[in-house]
Design brief:
This protein is mainly α and 136 residues long. The protein has 6 helices and 4 strands, in the order H-E-H-H-E-H-H-E-H-E. 57% of the residues lie in helices and 10% in strands. The strands form 2 sheets. It has a two-stranded parallel sheet with strand order 1-2. It has a two-stranded parallel ribbon with strand order 3-4.
């Protein structure tokens, strides 16, 4: 099961989260992004009622006791906005970076995205960032 070059590492991380050995903090907006991406994958797989599967996945993540989904507190929205203004990254990435800053925790990205390449040193200086691509 599971292909892709990041599968081994991402599944290890997720298993640590499920077992309670690692706590995940995700902004509420990431659930919407997860729904969108999951739905597209399920459609490509040809599943009947892909929206139902995507909805179940997001509900499961939301209710998982080792994942803390944080709402939209004002400080998170403002910090994400400041990051968006400064770095011009995707809004969901800005929210994840804002969580890293406000909660003093590491953020994990799959890889350095093209819009990050020219500012990577600044990002690594300001945030605790890890990239799965560094472990492959």
């Amino acid at each position: 099961m599971g292909g892709g070059k990041y599968y081994q590492y991402s599944s290890r991380l997720f298993n640590l989260i499920i077992k309670g050995n690692l706590r995940a903090i995700i902004p509420h907006v990431i659930l919407a992004e997860t729904y969108y991406v999951a739905l597209r994958i399920y459609e490509k797989l040809g599943l009947e009622n892909p929206d139902l599967y995507a909805n179940k996945l997001v509900e499961w993540l939301y209710r998982l006791p080792t994942i803390q989904v944080i709402g939209e507190p004002l400080d998170l929205a403002l910090e994400a906005g400041k990051i968006k203004l400064k770095y011009r990254l995707a809004l969901t990435d800005c929210y994840i970076l804002a969580v890293s800053k406000l909660y003093n925790c590491k953020v994990i990205f799959r890889e350095r995205e093209k819009e990050m390449i020219n500012i990577i040193k600044e990002l690594e200086k300001e945030f605790k960032i890890m990239f799965l691509e560094d472990y492959i």
